[in-house]
Amino acid sequence: MRNLERRIEDKNVVVGVLGLGYVGLPLAREFASAGIKVVGFDIDAKKVKVLNSGRSIIKHVPHKQVRDMVNSGCFNATTDMARLKTVDAILICVPTPLTRNREPDMQFVIGSTQIIARYLQRGQLVVLESTTYPGTTRELMIPMLQTSGLKAGRDFHLAYSPEREDPGNKDFTTKTIPKVVGGLTDKCRAIACKLYGQVIVRAVPVSTLEAAEAAKILENVYRCVNIAMVNELKIVFERMGIDIWEVIKAADTKPFGFKAFYPGPGLGGHCIPIDPFYLTWKARQFGMPTRFIELAGEINTGMPEYVVTKTMQALNEHKKSLKGSKVLVLGLAYKKDIDDLRESPSIELIELLRQRGATVDYNDPYIRHTHRQRQHDLGMTSKALSAKMLARYDVVLISTDHTDYDYDCIVKNAKLVVDTRNATALVRRGAGKIVKA
Description:
Strand order of the largest sheet: 3-2-1-4-5-6-7-8
Structural class: alpha/beta
Order of helices and strands: HEHEHHEEHEHEEHEHHHHHEHEHEHEE
Radius of gyration: 23 Å
Number of domains: 3
Number of helices: 15
Helix content: 25-40%
Shape: globular
CATH class of the largest domain: Alpha Beta
Number of strands: 13
């Protein structure tokens, strides 16, 4: 156990990252960039092959960075889970989605933990990074890991450190976002802090595993509730003839006591639409209702229906029905300038529009084709934008406000524009075509 601490200090440690997606790959990059050897584990052989060839699978991790990682000899990806025996630390970065009943789907954490238990070595550090409910690491993982015959906190270190990735954020990267760390024991926490301290600007130790798990839940519940508030106010103010975007801009001039949140067509990304429901599920085990959080979830999940209703009303004003209309959805990613469509409201918008009889296409400069997801399979390809192409649609629905879009051109050539992101705020010519939703 002391050898691990010394190897971390000397940067002779070998780090295993289990799951090479939007969390795991940026984390692997930071360790490799610091000269620390990383073995990346993933069950997707195609992904592993692409990464080992020096090409990236994520827009905000450029090809050059992956190429440098590979060429430096500090990074290698594999599907061979037996190589877990060869690393000093195992960082688990796998998805934690919801079931169709909006309950925690822990299959990826469970599967990963069972694999690790098979190859777990004395003296290793195991850290869960996946966002989850308080109690996961202690109640779910420890019993499975200890089937190895090794005891947590004595024979191997165990910690929880929630990911804080924000794809596309130009102000903060994995390296510059402080890392909350909770350990099973004080020594576990210290070792994990020391490891992250080699590549992250600051490790933030907390007293327990559960405190670290709860910190991540709090971060996302905070955002979920505030987004729900402005989404509800958008609907209320619209009835009053008040522009919510103007109101937020005005309120944001207050230098204290206010933080701007913005409405949209629904919640997207892997955290905010999902994590609050992890807490409500866990709270029910303690006989505690979470009415505030559940109400926020209800409001946010209802926004795609609101947008579709506004689109129907806008078409009616132009003597068109939604059924039989041609709709172009602009932006498939869950937020602008990224290629991440996890839980994107655009997907539900497309499905709702199709259900109501519309013919739907999409354009996204970062997502050329849709891929099969756990609950969706749109089977679509991004359409190339042109003035002539825009004019063919009965309505253009702006779902994601990518900065690559020429909104003046879009409004000029479209028959009707439904804007869910205030992306056309600066457009003056053709403003009569724009409906905010």
